[in-house]
Amino acid sequence: MQSLNVVLLQSDSKIAQSLVSALSNSFRSVHMVESMAELRSSIAKHRARVAILDMEKASLPDVERLSREFPQASIVCTHRCADEEMWAAALNAGACDVCPSSDTRGILRAAIGNAGMRQSAA
Fold it and tell me: Model pTM?
């Protein structure tokens, strides 16, 4: 288990619970939040290395702001619809990866891989 913290903002409660369960096996703690304000506060409070952000709960400017405010945190965006343009825009805004909301394995892989890259760069 990595000694890193994760913060999760997800619109679908079933998906959120599935992600919390999967992430809990690989990270020290997983903090589920319900708003962008809570996400920001929780990243700072828990020194989170990964923020998993549902694009239905955030905008591209939110992703840009998070990327600037928390350069140590990897931002993994999720969305229930495969929208290549939106996904490319999220990556350009500062996300490290974008995954379908239902792809728990892909989100976990992105969280672990990107957290490890950020940690070794720090």
Answer: 0.88
